[in-house]
Every structure is written in C-alpha cells, then in structure tokens.
Design brief:
The chain is an alpha+beta fold. The protein has helices at 26-39, 67-74, 92-105, 163-173, 178-197, 230-233, 268-274, 298-309, 327-337, 350-353, 357-375, and strands at residues 5-11, 15-16, 51-55, 83-86, 111-119, 125-126, 142-143, 257-266, 280-289, 317-322, 379-386, 390-398.
C-alpha cells in the first residue's frame, strides 16, 4: 500500500453571504483555486494529474452538478483529467480527501487534485415539479442555501428540525450555557484576527480578483470581528427559540459563506511530479452517524475511530481543527474528547472565518497540516459535523516533526 501525502493546500478568503464573493459563480471560484494551486507546483505537467475530486453540498445551480469537472475545464487543464464531485454536505471536501487517499493507497492514482466550493449567496431557489399537469394551486419555491428542503413526509419530525433547533437540543443534552457559547465564539474571532495579524494565513489563502472592473481584490476573511467579546455577543437576540430556554444566536453560530479550497494529495511519485515536498501524511480516517437532530455531536465518534485506527491516543494529538458549525456543538465535542481546548482551532474557526459548506473540510485539513508544520509537532486531527447526523475525521502526521 502506498502512503498518501498532502503536498499543498490553499483556499480563498471566505466571504459573507451577499458579500465580497457573491458576484463570483461557484464554478469560477473552483477554477480560480485550481489555477492558483497548479501555479505553485514548479515541475507539474498538468496531464499527469490522475483525477480531480471536489466537494460541494448544493450542486443544484451554477456548479452544474459536477463542479470538479467544470473547475478543471474552466481552469484550462487538459480535458483528459477525469472529475467527480462528492456530496456529504458539510463534510464533502474532507470526504474528497479520504477518497483520494484510498486511490493513492491502492495504487490507482499517484496525484489527485482536490477541491471544495460553495456559494451560499448564489444557491438557487428550486420549483418542484407537480404531480399533475396544469395545477390550479399556487406553487412555492424552495431555498437551497442551507438545511432541509422538499422534505419527505415519511421522515420523523424530530429528525427534520432546523439546524439551530437541533443545536438547542444538543446543548440541553450536554448542559452548555449561553455564556459558554458566547465566550467560545468571541475567542474564535480573537484567535482568527491574531492569526491573520501574525501572517499565519499568508501561505494558505490566495486572493480573489474582482468579478468585474468595478470591484477590488478580495484578500481576507470577511466575517472576522477582532473586537468581539462575550459581553457584546451576549446582547444578540436568539434566532431559533425565544424565552429563557433559547441560547443560539447569529453570533455563536457560523455565518453562511462563499469560498473555495484546493489541495494536492499524492504518493511519493506524486511529489516528484509536483516538484514539492510533502507537508503531511494522511494516517487514518473515521466516519460516524447518529440521530439526525444530534448531528453536531457526530465528530466525536468519527475522530475517536480515526485516532484509534492510527494506533494513537488523544494524548498523542497536538493540534485539532474542528469545524465550528455552532459554538454549542463544538464545546460538546471538545468536552467529550477531554482534550486541552487550546489545541483546538488555534488560528480561529468557522464561527469567525466562515463556513462555505463544500469548502470547509479542506480548509480544516490544510490548516491543521500547516499548524503542525509551524509547531514541529507530529499528529493532528481534522473533524467536521455534517447535517442529517454524520461526522468525519482525518488524522495527519507532520512528516518533518521535531517534537
């Protein structure tokens, strides 16, 4: 079995819904990160790329169903590169990395171009077809931006609650207070701002040129608020419930976002084709599932499986990137793992940076690899919760570890 290595990982800055990236089509964002990634590989002949795998949660609009194929074509890569798009909702691009690592391990590929993209700004409304022609009743458009839509009536109602209501139920189950959530969220903003200020993202984030001549280059995550404090966040109204039993707000949840990410995974031969040294080795992965309304807790078992499969203990893990869908679910996971909270999202997380669904898995994978490369520590975990009750995790090893 061949080893699978991460050779490079990049992303765009993440934009808020209706914000700096809303004029960019998702397939154009995907093509942009492909071009930028390829430009960073000094020896690459693009015809040597075996496969392109992208993650995307929507697919119903300008992604044109298979955005992996669209991205390589729009980026000007050879038409001979096959492309497939994976959809495991928020975990889509992390799932793409797992699929690619398996291809490399079995010798089916030496070099795989990975990506993930989402434009939540441009997610379309859809109009379902009618059972009968020429209906006399009104029809309702469904918003495809986030969450359940066109729900099958056979689904139990407790499964199909909103993501926010599901988070309220999860935090009740795990006794997580509004104060805890707001403190966690403020720290996410402060850590992200500090990381940007210290240049941590210089090698991870590639600017996006304007979509038209009137715009400006987009260079930095749009939703980070360096002045956020638990006190200021505590003043925000709750969104999904009202009254004393309500805690989830726009401030302690990840914002809807636009953005793209990309990476190269390859064998040792893949590194030779790229002319790059590896950043990290893909060690193991884990997937888990539970009742849909408790989706936020699913990363716990996924990461436990991945750590165990790697032959490690949590005490061996030096860095964790956990996608912050909501503060409450992040806190529930961290407490279940019983780890030092300071090793989690040390450069900020999705509450501050943003969560463009299909792009987030590769964002956390690339970030945990870069954190290990900087610190010299050996093992890290990237973990993500997924709507409808799933979780994914990947363990990576810093191949140049000094600690």
């Amino acid at each position: 079995m061949q080893q699978a290595y991460l050779y490079d990982a990049i992303r765009t800055p993440f934009g808020k819904i209706g914000g700096a990236l809303s004029s960019h089509r998702p397939d154009d964002l995907a093509a942009h990160v492909v071009r930028e990634l390829v430009a960073r590989a000094p020896k690459l002949e693009t015809s040597s790329i075996d496969e392109s795998i992208f993650g995307n949660a929507n697919g119903a609009g300008e992604e044109n169903r298979n955005v992996a194929r669209m991205a390589t074509l729009l980026a000007g890569l050879p038409t001979s590169i096959p492309g497939t798009t994976m959809n495991r909702l928020c975990g889509s691009s992390l799932d793409a990395s797992i699929a690619a690592s398996r291809q490399i391990a079995t010798g089916d590929a030496d070099l795989v171009l990975l990506g993930g993209v989402e434009s939540m700004s441009r997610a379309p409304w859809v109009l379902p077809k009618t059972e009968r022609p020429f209906p006399m009743s009104n029809l309702e458009l469904a918003n495809t931006t986030l969450g359940w839509r066109l729900v099958n009536p056979a689904m139990p109602g407790e499964w199909t609650v909103s993501l926010g209501e599901a988070t309220e139920q999860l935090r009740e189950k795990h006794n997580i207070s509004r104060e805890d959530q707001d403190e966690f969220s403020a720290a996410s903003h402060q850590l992200a701002a500090a990381a940007w200020g210290a240049g941590k993202y210089e090698n991870l984030v590639v600017p996006v040129p304007p979509a038209n001549k009137r715009g400006t280059e987009f260079t930095r995550d749009e939703t980070i608020r360096a002045d956020s404090t638990a006190q200021t966040l505590s003043k925000l109204r709750t969104v999904f419930r009202t009254g004393e039993n309500a805690t989830v707000t726009a401030g302690n949840a990840s914002p809807m976002s636009d953005g793209a990410s990309a990476a190269f995974l390859g064998s040792e031969k893949g590194g030779e084709l790229l002319g790059l040294d590896p950043i990290a080795r893909i060690v193991s992965n884990g997937a888990s599932a539970l009742d849909p309304q408790f989706f936020g807790f699913a990363p716990v078992e996924a990461a436990n499986k991945a750590v165990a499969k790697a032959g490690l203990k949590w005490s061996d893990i030096a860095a964790v990137e956990l996608n912050e869908a909501f503060a409450a679910q992040s806190l529930a996971c961290i407490r279940a793992w019983d780890i030092d909270p300071t090793i989690v999202n040390a450069w900020g997380g999705a509450i501050s940076i943003g969560h463009p669904l299909g792009a987030s898995g590769l964002r956390i994978l690339g970030t945990v690899a870069r954190r290990l490369a900087e610190s010299g520590e050996r093992y890290g975990v990237a973990a993500i919760c997924i709507g409808v009750g799933q979780g994914l995790a990947v363990v990576v090893e810093n191949v140049n570890a000094t600690k």
